[in-house]
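Long-time lurker. I teach an intro course on protein structure, and each term I like to show students one example going from raw sequence to a predicted 3D structure in token notation. This year I'd like something fresh instead of my usual example. Would anyone be willing to generate the tokens for the chain below so I can use it in lecture? Attribution to the forum is fine with me.
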Amino acid sequence: MNRPARRGYPAWLWIPAGLGAVFVLLPLVAIVTHVDWPHFGELVTSASSSAALQLSIQTALLSTVVCIVLGVPMAIVLARGRFPGQSIARALVLVPLVMPPVVSGLALLYAVGSRGLLGPVLLKLGLQVPFSTAAVVLAQSFVSLPFIVISLEGALRTVTETHDEIAFAYGASRTQVLFKITLPSLAPALISGTVLSFARALGEFGATITVAGSLQGVTRTLPLEIYLQNNLNPDAAVALSLLLVVIALAVVLVAGQPWRRAALAELLDVFNGDAGRKAPAPR
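-- Reply from a regular --
Happy to contribute to a lecture. Here you go:
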């Protein structure tokens, strides 16, 4: 009689796991306990807070679109392409993840500032990027782009190219395979990467204040408003911090929803059904 395989983990792992949970939850509990609940609505709906929240959502959405447009091709090229210096290119894509935010802001400022690499060209075109809303989107996109690239590249390395080869055998072009097979198969990773990029952009602070400043209604996003209110009205800073935590938590929960797998299965079923109907009868 075969003995059942032992599964699970050592009981002592509960100790460091519990300490890790306390390490993460304790600061969040501290914020909740310091919120001025009777005036919470007033604090988060003031004119400056509302303007900062609106600007944060708008710029985070725009930067997420930028990340999708640039990140999806980058991930596909890095995962499926073969070219000299590929490992270096992959490392460079991940640099914004480990760069201090202030350094990222300085790098962007020296790239698009009036004395930067692209500054003279931009000025001739009548474009003033630093200390504008465009600079906010630029900073958020720079620090958020790696999330989509990492998510998609990792997914591409686990997805076989069997369906691609079948489609090529039936005469599909590379572009058709990209939009009908490759991208649908990446739906779960794309959703996760998109949501995480949005969350990262929403919480961006260091690069934004360095390259865009803090102008109300123009560049002052919610993290910058929290920093300002921490000196002027700590109660407002705590209330806005809790609001940002709740938004981030909601975003992360959306990224982890199991419906992504169902959506992917439906997309693949649709493709397989179409391929089966269009396939020539065997001889």
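Some talking points for your students: The chain has 14 helices and no strands. The longest helix spans residues 47-80.
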